[in-house]
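Q: How would the structure tokens look for this protein?
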Amino acid sequence: MPPIEVSPFRAVRSTKRSRFFPVVALASVVLGWAGQVDAATITAASGNAVDLQAACNQAKPGDVIAIPAGTFTFDRTVTCSTGFSFRGAGESQTVLRSGSVTTAMLYLSGANGLRTEISGITFIGTGNDGSRLDLALHLTDSPKDFRVHHCTIIGFGGYGIYVSGNSRGVVDHCTFKDVHYGTVDSMGYGVCVIGDGAASWSRPLALGTAEAVFVEDNQFSGTRHAVASNAGSRYVFRHNQVRDPPANWVPIDAHGREYGSTTGSRSFEIYENTVANQVGTAWAGSVIRGGDGVIFNNQFGPGINNPIYLANRLDGSETGCSYPCPDQTRALYAWNNTNAGAPIAITVRAGHEPFFMLGRDYFNGPMPGYTPYVYPHPLVGTALPVDAGSPDAGAVDAGRPDAGQPDASVADAGVRDAGSTDAGPVDGGLPDAGPVDAGSGALDGGELAGDAGTPRRDAGTPPDTGDAPSGLADGGGVGGCATTGGPGAGTWLALLAAWLAVRATCSSSPGRRGRSAWPRRPGRWW
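A: Here is the predicted structure in token form.
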């Protein structure tokens, strides 16, 4: 291995090539990673924005950007492309504060179509007193096959994670806490999914497939919406624990063509979640006002009114159209949902009955022919290809043991590793319910600073019922949160070139002629 240059102002890059390089080249093309097999681990000089930006600028597709332990404050947004992995030292070890940032801490463009992964980090916002609409992560430009996992996101006024475009990926095993905007709670979304607008509505409905943003096995507390969506969004919200939304707001949301949005949510799949409010009474558990989908096997309550609430917009614009209104829900199926243990059905907002007829637009039963996508998501437990599966130079392989060699009693980022103790208060990879402070005052917020300007209003006005709080209307934009084809000729040529390289290497290796040169079977993957 070449010497490692260490500088307080520069990232550290260590590169080594596996003896299985040709084999990995072939596999990389098949997985969409052609040209990325020269993976390296780049250790940022620190976790502040300047050093992380330097690491991003140095990184090549497939590289890992390792963020050291410590508490670091951002004074600017770090802008990168997708195609590599951000790995903290563990949720209780690597703490990134938003500081003076008024937008995203990490802004990642998925325009290159490459996978990316973010793990083992705690993100802390400037608080939720209404002074700032900051957010932790913004994945934009239709990111594909991304994974955000084993991260803790606390105290942001705007969003925890914002995903936009024709996106596909998964957010799993993360903790979201106190993500809302001020006492009026006009903003605040754990995960916000914004699609590619009219283009999404032009494509077929693809329920039960990978073509969505998956939010699974996470914990949400004190978030205005655990998930929100609009503008052709497609999301799957499953196996999550949601509790105590602030000011009795709605944990699960799908916006329609309202509050300035030109298109509504396209699809949603909401199942196997627990939703409860032990500090008040939420006026609804889920509010659907655009798109089609399924809601099943969810446990609502206590403290949840109207667990499944169907409406055609909430900004008053529904009076300006007749059935069917553009982007309104036309096929909602709900079954096996309970509230405090009792079976429930869909509730239609009073006055919206002309838009929704039982047996025509919504159904209290399973969707014919629907099969949920495989659980857990195939991206869960896999990592970006690093050094062809061989042990990194001092690095941990993002929650999975190396090929045949568990990481020798070193705890991976938030995941139990062959009996070793996790780094921080994490039970078997799933964050504990409740505060994630682990006794450290460093996780308890921080100084509030700055004025983010005029607050935006939210597309979440509750129904005009006696127990519903008065809400604020949205000021426009995406209304509450805002095509990649198959392999081209270049991909197939790269595949052929990789195969020829494998064949040439296998046939010319001493002592290997006529025998397989494939690597040994890898060990288990998390």
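The radius of gyration is 24 Å.

Residues 489-508 form the longest helix (20 residues).

Upvote if useful.
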